[in-house]
Design brief:
It is a single chain. This protein has 591 residues and is mostly beta strands. Helix content is 5%, strand content 30%. It contains 4 helices and 33 strands. The strands form 8 sheets. Strands 11-10-9-13-18-15-16 form a 7-stranded mixed beta sheet, with no helix packed on it. Strands 21, 25, 27, 28, 29 and 31 form a 6-stranded mixed beta sheet that branches. It has a 5-stranded mixed beta sheet with strand order 12-20-19-14-17, with no helix packed on it. The longest helix is centred in the first third of the chain and has 8 residues. The radius of gyration is 23 Å and the shape is globular.
Length: 591
C-alpha cells in the first residue's frame, strides 16, 4: 500500500488490514493474544513480539529462519502470544528488515496488579521514516565495491504514527497521576523525551518494573521503551510543552535535519496559555541511566559461570561488500531454521558448529549464568537486543584505545576528540532490560541466565545498516532439554515444506559437520577493519590500563577476578577449558 504518513513523501509501506500506521495492541496480563497473520506481501514475512520470553514456546518468537520459516506469500499463520509479562512492548516484522517499512505496532500488556498507583495512561510511540524503501537501501549498503557505509539519508520523525509536527495534545487533569509509556520503534535514529515543568519518575524499562527513578528526561535507542509516572499540577491555569528530539551522532549535524526537534502540548485547559520553561542545556538535566536504576524485584547480580566476548566490527569482504560482525563472521540466516537444527541433531545439537559458521552460535547449558562482554570500538552506538528474555546491566566503561576502529565518516567529532569514558558499575540491585545502548568506544557487561530453553538471537537493532549487514549472533539455550520437552506445531513444519526448506539436520540440512551446499562464506579483506592511532599525548583511558582509576572487571566485586579482555580467563568464550568450542575457526564446507 502507499502512504503519505510523514506529509512529505508519498511512498510504498507495509501495513496491516489496510492501515498504516498499524494501531496499538492492548491485552491484560495473563491473556493470550491470537495474532493471525495473512501475508499479502510478495515475500515471506514473520512477526516478532519484541521483549517477550515465550517460555515453553520458543517457536512463537517470530524470528524468520531462526525459530520458524517465514510465512510465504498468500498464506497465514496464527501466533499464540501469552501475556505473562506486563509491560511496554511492540510487534514488528522480522524478515529482511521489513520493520523499517512500517510493519510495526506498540504492544501493551497491562498489569493486573500494578505496584504503582496512577489514574490514566498515555502512549507515545516514536518512529523514523525514510523516503527510501529498505530493499533499495540494502542494495546500496551491500553493493560490491563499497568500502564504507553509503551517504546518510535523513529521516522524518513520527510521533504516534504521523509527522511529529502534527502531534495531538496530551490531555491532563489537574492533580491526576499519569503513566506515560514511550516506545521507540525507530529503525536507526535515537530519541530524547522530556516534559519541561513536570518531573518524571521512571517505573519501567523494556517490560522490567523498576524502583522509582526521578529524571528530567530519557534517551531511547532503537527498540527501547520506558514508562514514567508524571503528576499533573494542582492548577489548570497553564498548558505545557513536551519535547521529542530525534537525532543521531553518527551522521552529519545539519540544522533542521539532524537533529529534528518536535514539540507537543500537555493540555490542562483548551484556552489556557502555554507556560514556557527556562531553556537549559542537556548537560544540566538529569537523564535516565541504566546503571542508576534498580529492578523492583530485588534480584541480585547473577554469578558469572562463563564469559562470552562480542565485538562490533566492520567486515569488508574481498568482494568489497560492507558487512558487519559481532563474532568472527557476519551473520547470515541458515538454510534450516536454527531451532529445527537444535531439535533434530541429537547430542550434536550441543556442538555450536552444526548451526553453521555464519549463525555464530553459542550453546548455553540449562541455567548457566553468562556474562556478555560487549565491546564497541567504533565511533557510533549500537542498540543491542536479546530475544527470549532480558539481561542485567552490570558495567559500562572504555574500550582499550589500542582496539579502537576507524569510525565511519563523516562524524561530528575527530579522532582526537575521543572522550574520557569512566568505568561505571551497578550498585545494590542491577537493572534488567532486553535492549541496551552501547555508546561509541565503550564496552558493556551484561548477564543472563540460560533458564529459557530455545534459540534466541542477539543483534543490533539499527536497521538495516547494522542488523541487515550481519551484526547478530545466536544463543542456543539447552538444546538437550528442548528435544525432550518441546513440540513444534506440525503447521510450522508444513509451512517450511511448502517452501522447499528442510527441517532436519545442520544449517544446510545435512548430518554432522557435512556442509555441502553451504553458500560461500565471505572472506575478510586484510586490513579492512583499521584501528585508530592513539592521538599524541592522549591519556591511556583503557579498560586494561594500569593507570585506570577503577579496573573494569574488578570494581570491588568478588565475582569478577578475571580481566574481561583476557583470552586466558577460565570463563572466556575462547578459553581452552570452555565447554563450547571457539567460533574463531568456522567449519568449511566438506566436499
Amino acid at each position: 500500500m502507499h502512504t503519505f504518513r510523514d506529509g512529505i513523501v508519498h511512498r510504498r509501506a507495509k501495513g496491516v488490514n489496510g492501515q498504516v500506521p498499524v494501531p496499538p495492541v492492548y491485552i491484560n496480563q495473563g491473556d493470550t493474544l491470537l495474532l493471525t497473520v495473512h501475508n499479502n506481501l510478495d515475500m515471506p514475512t514473520s512477526i516478532h513480539s519484541h521483549g517477550l520470553r515465550h517460555d515453553g514456546a520458543t517457536f512463537m518468537d517470530g524470528a524468520a529462519m531462526v525459530t520458524q520459516c517465514g510465512i510465504p506469500p498468500g498464506e497465514s499463520f496464527t501466533y499464540e502470544i501469552y501475556g505473562a509479562q506486563a509491560g511496554s512492548y511492540w510487534l514488528h516484522g522480522h524478515r529482511k528488515d521489513d520493520v523499517a517499512d512500517g510493519l510495526r505496532a506498540p504492544f501493551i500488556i497491562r498489569d493486573r496488579y500494578s505496584p504503582y498507583e496512577y489514574d490514566e495512561e498515555v502512549l507515545i510511540y516514536l518512529e523514523d521514516w525514510y523516503p527510501t524503501e529498505v530493499p533499495a537501501k540494502m542494495a546500496e549498503i551491500l553493493a560490491p565495491g563499497s568500502i564504507g557505509p553509503p551517504a546518510p539519508t535523513f529521516a522524518t520523525g513520527l510521533v504516534n504514527g504521523f509527522n511529529g509536527n502534527d502531534s495531538r495534545p496530551i490531555q491532563f487533569v489537574a492533580g491526576k497521576r499519569y503513566r506515560i509509556r514511550v516506545i521507540s520503534m525507530s529503525s536507526t535514529m535515537y530519541w530524547r523525551f522530556t516534559t519541561p515543568g513536570h518531573k518524571m519518575e521512571i517505573i519501567e524499562a523494556d517490560g522490567i518494573t523498576s524502583e522509582p527513578c526521578e529524571v528530567d528526561g530519557f534517551t531511547l535507542a532503537p527498540a527501547q521503551r520506558y514508562s514514567a509516572i508524571v503528576t499533573a499540577h494542582e492548577s489548570s491555569d497553564f498548558n505545557f510543552i513536551y519535547n521529542c528530539t530525534m537525532y543521531a551522532d553518527f551522521i552529519p549535524f545539519i540544522p533542521g535535519l539532524n537533529p529534528r526537534i518536535y514539540t507537543g502540548l500537555i493540555e490542562y485547559r483548551q484556552d489556557a496559555p502555554i507556560k514556557h520553561m527556562e531553556i537549559v542545556g542537556d548537560d544540566q538535566l538529569v537523564w535516565a541511566d541504566d546503571l542508576n536504576m534498580h529492578a523492583l524485584n530485588g534480584e541480585p547480580a547473577l554469578p558469572m559461570d562463563r564469559q562470552v566476548v562480542l565485538e562490533t566490527r566492520a567486515f569488508i569482504s574481498t568482494e568489497r561488500i560492507n558487512f558487519r560482525k559481532l563474532g568472527s563472521l557476519p551473520y547470515t540466516e541458515p538454510l534450516v531454521p536454527s531451532l529445527f537444527t537444535a531439535m533434530s541433531m541429537g547430542e550434536q545439537a550441543m556442538d555450536p558448529r552444526v548451526y553453521g559458521p555464519q549463525a555464530q552460535a553459542y550453546v548455553i547449558p540449562l541455567n548457566q549464568s553468562v556474562e556478555i562482554l560487549l565491546k564497541n570500538p567504533q565511533g557510533q552506538p549500537h542498540s543491542q537486543h536479546q530475544h527470549g528474555g532480558w539481561f542485567q546491566i552490570i558495567e559500562r566503561g572504555p574500550v582499550d584505545r589500542s582496539e579502537l576502529e576507524q569510525p565511519p565518516l563523516p562524524l561530528n567529532f575527530s579522532l582526537a576528540d575521543v572522550p574520557f569514558i569512566p568505568v561505571q558499575r551497578y550498585t545494590g540491585v542491577p537493572m534488567s532490560r532486553d535492549t541496551v545502548d552501547v555508546p561509541p568506544f565503550s564496552y558493556v557487561k551484561l548477564r543472563f541466565r540460560g533458564d529459557n530453553p530455545g534459540v534466541h538471537l542477539h543483534h543490533c537493532h539499527l536497521n538495516p545498516t547494522h542488523s541487515g549487514a550481519g551484526l547478530s549472533i545466536t544463543f542456543v539455550v539447552a538444546p538437550d532439554v528442548l528435544q525432550k520437552t518441546l513440540r513444534i506445531p506440525d503447521e510450522l513444519y508444513e509451512m517450511c515444506a511448502r517452501q522447499g526448506i528442510k527441517t532436519e539436520g545442520n544449517a544446510v540440512g545435512n548430518w554432522g559437520l557435512d556442509f555441502t551446499g553451504l553458500p560461500t562464506v565471505p572472506v575478510e579483506l586484510v586490513g579492512s577493519s583499521p584501528r585508530v592511532p592513539l592521538p599524541s599525548g592522549a591519556p591511556p583511558n583503557s579498560a586494561n590500563s594500569p593507570d585506570s582509576a577503577i579496573p573494569p572487571n574488578s570494581v570491588n566485586s568478588p565475582d569478577s577476578a578475571n580481566s574481561p579482555n583476557s583470552a586466558n580467563s577460565p570463563n572466556s568464550a575462547n578459553s581452552p577449558d570452555s565447554a563450547i568450542p571457539p567460533n574463531s575457526t568456522p567449519p568449511q564446507p566438506i566436499n
